[in-house]
Amino acid sequence: MAGQKGKQTTLGNFLGEKKNGGNKAAETAGNIRSYFGNRKDKKDNSNDKETEATETAVGDKRKRPESANQKDDNDETNKKFKADKEKTKEELEKDEELKETKKPKEELEEEDEEIKEAEEQEKEQNREQQEDKTAAHVMACFSTADTKSKLGMTWKEGDDVPYSVLCKTFEACEATTKRLEITEYLVTLFVEVIKKKPTDLLSTLYMCINKLCPDYEGLELGIGESLLMKAVAESTGRTLKVIQKDYHKTGDLGTVAKNSKSSQSTLFKPKRLTVTHVFKTLTKIAEVKGNSAQANKVGHIKGLLVACEDNEAKYLIRQLEGKLRIGLAEQTVLSALAHSIVLSKPESAKMKTEQKEQKLTYAVDLVKSVYNQLPSYNMILPALLEHPLDELKERCKMRAGIPLKPMLAHPTKSLTEVLDRFEGHPFTCEFKYDGERAQIHKLPDGSTKIYSRNSEDMSIRYPDVVEKLKKWIKPTTSSFILDCEAVAWDREKKCILPFQVLSTRKRKDVKEEEITVQVAIFAFDCLYMNGESLLQESLRTRREKLLEGFQETENEFFFAQHMDTDNIEDIQTFLDVSIKKNCEGLMVKIYDGEEASYEPSKRSRNWLKVKKDYLGTGGVGDSMDLVVVGAFLGKGKRTNVYGSFLLGCYDPNSGDYQTVCKLGTGFSDENLKDFYETLKNYTIPTVPRYYQIGDNPEAPDVWFEPKVVWEVKCADLSISPRYMAGVGLVDETRGISLRFPRFIRIRDDKEAEDSTTNEQIVEFYESQSNGHD
Ligand SMILES: Nc1ncnc2c1ncn2[C@@H]1O[C@H](COP(=O)(O)OP(=O)(O)OP(=O)(O)O)[C@@H](O)[C@H]1O
């Protein structure tokens, strides 16, 4: 038997040849069967078990009521299974033959490769944990005393936390790129707040992540710059023209506000700002609605600006803009919170370094895992402050009504890659529906909510779904959280419509009677049921709960089509059927055991996505979602609109955007007109300091705020001195760029911070050079 690489080639070829339908496919079929023969052989020698699994899969499907189309799929699948069962004996004989002829050297090589791959995967999974451990080690030896004086933390116990202290901490964080140093500053701040004014911890923490409340409550800052400029001008006595000119020069309205304040003489000294006062005022500003909203907002902003001293105006304006950009990733804030809870307890001073380190590591793991299940500081903070750490899990359980960050999948570019990754694990394949992620909650009081992948409340966008969902729920199901995809649906033809149709559905102020694009819900996971979290259960158990607790309802609600097999021909057939049914491809997921648990917010290797478009291309396994950071004015046919665009990816560690390509293809004339109209609202006078643009001699004609995300496909990726994506990760000075990028669609379900990260770009680049497929 050939080594791992050989196996990939054989299968890769097979898939290509199968498409052409030539005789070669039949010739190579023997190789494929032997490949799977050996794979099965490793897992389990029993033919019975294989047959049993096949029967269960088919049985599973028969249990469910099906629409006409789905029934066709299952019939096709069943026929395929029958043919396959007959092949099994032949396969096993081939296995035996191959076992005897196998050369020990090749066996060793194969094992080496497997070990290497497993190590790679483990390395990646452990990286974040390792960073947490290093931080725990450093923090165990850390004394907040030095940092405290550096940050001027001298306010009196019981007094409100001064805003100046928070701004000094921001300044210190902004001045470094080292995550550990940032953690030290935050821990110092949080420990001090916990000791002197614990009730201010919540507002302090929200200010650090520049939010006002949990995402699902939907209250956001992000005041337009013209309003902010007006407020700065009016509160400092400078003209709007001068403010605009300064902004054009610096590209940072915060700095303009700070400089404007320092050149202003004040007759009386207003009361110093406190964190809680600023937080409450920011909340009021975000809440203001109605006719005089603008004037009201300006009034509040001016009130704050007048009281600002030193660098406070700079951070206040940035907070109002909704972009603090001082390199504070939420994960760092969570770690710092966990550390400070431990370090603020008097007993921590008595602990030996090793013991403290263990406690810190435990606290970080605990706080992160609880936050993943209940992403609400409003609920977690009181439990952390008022009760022992050990009780946190019990006190802060996931519940219906609080959306979790969904589990995400890893891209692959061949079925072979999927089978290699999942070798030895039972896995299941599901259709990858092409619509919008929908997390559906039913609370014990009977109310229902639908949340987007960003935890936005979408219940108002889907009033028709909310109205009908009681029909799908069996009487035994009182509360639940379902993970689903909402797709555009043709009620007459009873089939899925392409994503483009869904994107024409209204997103705001949707009235049931005006809905033109109908949706159907495809449920693929059940995360919570009747008061119990199912996250730790295997996918098999979660799917059982899903099938038990709900019923398919024509034109409205379906279980995701699935197939449990490791036979590549079946998977290929299933993939083909999924594409015929307007799906994007398959999701392949580990089915049993610990790795089959649900991992909120993680892009996990236990869920793999296989998109038809990327199979066998030898290029990149997925499209990317990139932020439009600039544009070049069009010429010729594209005069009066932007002709091409500069795109960037996101670096979650620094909060920066790194340029990744210039994009000029894939657009219709209509697209270009629309984009010109939308994007011109986001133009900014100069390149912001949080854009890493490198030495590209071709600067765009206009720069944009990071607001618009587009899905882009490319042929491959290469190292380039002109772009900055992943700079420092693969090459010290050069970044990675997309070659032959093409526009696919707008991703208005994604914020700029949800775009493809610099590390994902590096992964795409590296997987391409590993030569999979
Ligand atoms: N059966 C399924 N299981 C899980 N996710 C599914 C399924 N069918 C469709 N999806 C959709 O596919 C997405 C998984 O792909 P991924 O994790 O990469 O999200 P993404 O970044 O939005 O990428 P994509 O552009 O591929 O949707 C999910 O967010 C979900 O919306």
Automatic annotation (TrEMBL):
Biased composition (Basic and acidic residues): 38-106, 123-135
Ranges of Polar residues composition bias in the record: 1-12
Alphabetical list of Pfam families matching this protein: DNA_ligase_A_C (PF04679), DNA_ligase_A_M (PF01068), DNA_ligase_A_N (PF04675)
Residue intervals of the ATP-dependent DNA ligase family profile domain: 512-651
EC numbers: 6.5.1.1
Record GO terms (molecular function): ATP binding; DNA binding; DNA ligase (ATP) activity
PROSITE patterns hit by this protein: DNA_LIGASE_A1, DNA_LIGASE_A2, DNA_LIGASE_A3
Catalytic activity annotation: ATP + (deoxyribonucleotide)n-3'-hydroxyl + 5'-phospho-(deoxyribonucleotide)m = (deoxyribonucleotide)n+m + AMP + diphosphate
Protein name: DNA ligase
